[in-house]
Amino acid sequence: MEEPKDRAFVNGLARGLAVMSAFKPDRNRMSLGELSKETGLPKTTVARLVHTLVKLGYIYADPESGRFQLHPRVLTLGYPVMASMDKRHVALPMMQELAEYSRGTVSLGIRDGLSMILIERSRDSTVRALPLDIGSRIPIHTTSMGRAYFAAAGDAEQDDILVQIKSSDPKGFKQIEKSLRAHEQEYRQKGYCTSIGSWENDVNAVGVAVELSNDALAAFNCGGPSSRIAEENLDDLGKRLAELARHFQTADWVGQLPPRPYKGVAPT
Hints:
two-stranded antiparallel sheet; 268 residues; alpha+beta
């Protein structure tokens, strides 16, 4: 869990949170054995943690299958955080306009470990395939959103991200760090980061970082299949997304719709 030298660190709390974090959209029902494997904790320890979380109402035990899943009560933990990010609501009209212009999708995400979690999402009406939904995770180092976030993060947070990457992928660490640093330079030069087939082979995107109303760092992206968003169009979309982020960042109209017209105007 944590190095023994940190005497203020509460291992029991960390383990309980690890169990709750083990559940994923594609693994929302798990047995004690699966939870033990996912968390790396002994099955007896997991059993005690799950028993406590069931008693507290954060995990539900299916009486028929004996498997466990998160109870909707866990949403009460996240609501205060989402409510403090009220400024994200005013981004939606702007995101929708850019999604329609690009014929793709526009998302807003925040960091969790080595992932970006989507907290808002807009898509062009002609996008037929079901896109990633709010709450979905995408990796930091291969996506334009994650790269923009890394580029805008402070030194301490960048170091934390790199330490986690080195721990999870020691063989690929040097190449990943080199890529992130290159995109950090790209962000400084252009004001946005690109992702050209690095997350999914046929997906291109651009990303720009912003701060939410609670000063939390976040990032936008705009992307889609290469058949809709060609590589040669990324510069235009990057400038438009940077303008969207600037418009969003400097606004003082939290809780209201953005001033009109916006129409995804690119910087001159």
